[in-house]
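Example 4.3 (complexes with small molecules)
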Amino acid sequence: MNISNNTILITGGTSGLGLEFTRQLVDWGNTVLVTGRDLSKLGKTKKIFPQVHIFQSDVSDPKAIRELYERVITQFPNLNVLINNAGEMRKINLHDVSYDLENITREIEINLSGPIRMVQQFLPHLKTQKAAAILNVTSGIALIPFPISPIYGASKSGLRSYTKSLRIQMKNTSVKVFELVAPGAKTPLNDKFEKDVDPKTLMDPGKLVAIAIKGIENDTLDIYPGLAKLLKIASRVAPGFLLQQLSKPVDKMQLDQ
Ligand SMILES: NC(=O)c1ccc[n+]([C@@H]2O[C@H](COP(=O)([O-])OP(=O)(O)OC[C@H]3O[C@@H](n4cnc5c(N)ncnc54)[C@H](OP(=O)(O)O)[C@@H]3O)[C@@H](O)[C@H]2O)c1
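Answer. The structure with NAP bound is encoded below.
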């Protein structure tokens, strides 16, 4: 797919990988629209990239998605690319009874229901475009659980499954469906995990996003940057060993709480 002259909506485009997508896709000559909840982060993004269009919108709120659609399509009828990037990852001790029934599924609402609802809302419009794409950002943790983040892993595995079905159902349309299986990256999302994840394994967000954009350009529908490639192989040939390694932070989390 041509990676210039598109109109691209990036959810969570104000930090980490989303901000890097914003930076690089602006450089490639695209019209870029970003969403996020925090107005100050949106304002900072606008300051760095005055040509970017900002929209305050919470991807976990269906009403906000309907309103976002009305505003975006009125102003940008050429919108042809949706990047479902917004996401949250928490460390959750399942013995902790302080999570109520609403709170415990927050990652499902943001990371799984969010992209599904965004697609449901924007797909009829995307299908009217000559060349269109949806990129869903999943994670290496969609391939194998990271047991200190059980709800996050469930949300990303769910998104991976949904993305594969979506791709097959879009086969006779102009909409290409990409999955970015992101490895651990140096972004604010990992600040809470500095004791659980070796910082040396975290990828530079600029490099990661450059690989993702190259993947879109080459029509590589499943994109595995850096260690994600290795994780894909290890999750097939040695899933037990890999899960054992990823389970190590559980004891410490339970001792700390
Ligand atoms: N960093 C990694 O190691 C890694 C690895 C694999 C996959 N990923 C995935 O990559 C994506 C980006 O993560 P990141 O590392 O760049 O995280 P980040 O730096 O924490 O940025 C997250 C972005 O999402 C936005 N966001 C969060 N909840 C939102 C909501 N309910 N509605 C709208 N926007 C929301 C945030 O803005 P507001 O807070 O203002 O809303 C922010 O712009 C996520 O889907 C994540 O799961 C990350």
